[in-house]
Amino acid sequence: MLMAHPAVLRDLIDQYEALAAVGAADADSAQVRQRMDDVAYTLCVSTGTRDIDAALIAARHQLPGARPLDDSVLNAG
């Protein structure tokens, strides 16, 4: 499987978190929801996962400074 560059993953995580914060404040914004869905989809494709929670965990796991030998979160299910 191709791996996304850590800088791309960091940017996607940051975008998702920012949109989540905006979305929580403005729950009626279809534009924010659509952008959040797009970023979530991109994160899932980039990490080979099927839901945003798993994608965020996998993306963070691939960032520099992550503990590469600690896969306990990924094997918890």
Describe the structure.
With 77 residues, the chain is an all-alpha fold. It has helices at residues 6-25, 30-47, 52-61. Helix 1 (6-25) runs antiparallel to helix 2 (30-47). The longest helix has 20 residues, at 6-25. The protein is elongated and about 35 Å long.
Offer a concise description of the structure.
By secondary structure, the protein is mainly α. It contains three helices and no strands. The protein has helices at 6-25, 30-47, 52-61.
Which secondary structure elements does this structure contain, and how are they paired or packed?
Layout lengths: L5 H20 L4 H18 L4 H10 L16
Low-confidence stretches: none
Number of helical stretches of at least 4 residues: 3
Mean of pLDDT:
84
Biggest sheet, open or closed, and with what strands and sense? none
Helix content: 55-70%
Features:
single chain; 77 residues; mainly alpha; elongated
